[in-house]
Design a protein that fits this description.
- The chain has 12 helices and 6 strands.
- The protein is an alpha/beta fold and 294 residues long.
- The protein has 2 domains: 85 residues, 434 Repressor (Amino-terminal Domain) (Orthogonal Bundle), CATH 1.10.260.40; 196 residues, Endonuclease, Chain A, CATH 3.30.870.
- The chain has a 6-stranded mixed sheet, with helices on both faces.
- Strand 5 and strand 6 form a beta hairpin.
- Helix 2 packs across helix 3 and helix 4 runs antiparallel to helix 5.
- The longest helix has 19 residues.
- The termini are far apart.
């Protein structure tokens, strides 16, 4: 439960609301379809509410659900308070200016990245987003998203740079463990100067921030547990009622994986990669060696 609802971030209120509404429904013995029939809405609306995927939650909907679930008066007031926050405050990624460049699946992910305690990321092709420099981001988007206007690229850059604030939070900064393929160090994105500055940024960040750890998978190690592609795992603190999730994306879509069996497979793959790749000091040495080659 959130102690100070009025000052809480909408993302946290939305996810806390999702968990408590799901718990209430399960305790009532009702399925999502049964609840949807009573409210005369689609089952997908109930599912989205319980997944925390709705940017705004209507207090009236929460009030109606609390009636169905026969929630205690105090809990009803709290849940309606959560919904009110989602109506009256906006997370930065909910701003209308970003709508054209943020896919719905990525928007759902951003809401959870903002409150996660740890992020485990394996990248095979490019520098992890939370470690990218602005010139690198611009070069990447100019090539990977040809046809975007200058304004759209500016918005994508702003999204990427703003996301990185989670690494510098005053209270409980996000713990990032990034594992990258050696190809990321060798593949030039932008000019040699851009690439050199990018690698220097990784080395500096990983050396100066105790909450950031980087490992590199060398070519010489051959086949490895990450060869099926890049992925990101978000984890939450023990006091938060949220299970880990996996985020995946491709050229046309982005989506969040919640199914426990699938998340377990990705967590096992990441653990194997951590054991497979050289440690943090050795990997930093590889990065510093690559810097000299640009």
């Amino acid at each position: 439960m959130i102690e100070d609802v009025g000052s809480a971030a909408p993302a946290l209120c939305r996810l806390q609301l999702a968990v408590e509404l799901r718990d209430l429904r399960i305790a009532s013995g009702l399925t999502a379809s049964e609840v949807a029939k009573r409210l005369v809405v689609s089952p997908s609306k109930i599912n989205r509410l319980e997944a925390g995927e709705n940017g705004v939650v209507e207090p009236a909907d929460v009030m109606a659900l609390c009636e169905i679930y026969e929630a205690p008066a105090e809990q009803r007031a709290t849940l309606i308070g959560y919904a009110t926050v989602t109506k009256t405050k906006r997370d930065w990624w909910q701003e209308r200016a970003y709508a054209p460049v943020i896919l719905p699946g990525f928007k759902a992910y951003l809401g959870q990245e903002a409150i996660a305690s740890a992020l485990h990321n394996y990248e095979s092709e490019y520098v992890p987003g939370l470690l990218q420099t602005e010139p690198y981001v611009r070069a990447l988007h100019r090539r990977a998203h040809e046809g975007l206007s200058r304004e759209e690229i500016d918005r994508l850059v702003t999204v990427r740079m703003t996301r990185q604030e989670v690494l510098h939070r005053d209270s409980s900064p996000l713990r990032l463990t990034a594992i990258i393929n050696e190809a990321v160090l060798r593949r030039r994105v932008g000019s040699p100067e851009v690439m050199r500055a990018q690698l220097e940024h990784i080395a500096e960040t990983a050396s100066s921030l105790p909450n950031v750890r980087v490992q590199v998978v060398p070519f010489e190690f051959g086949e490895h547990p990450g060869m099926n592609g890049s992925f990101t795992i978000l984890q939450f603190t023990e006091r938060d009622p949220f299970l880990p999730i996996v985020y995946l994306e491709n050229l046309s879509d982005a989506w969040v994986v919640r199914k426990r069996a699938d998340v377990d497979r990705y967590e096992e793959a990441f653990t194997d990669l951590q054991a497979f790749a050289p440690g943090h000091p050795e990997s930093l040495s590889m990065i510093k060696k690559a810097i000299k080659e640009f």
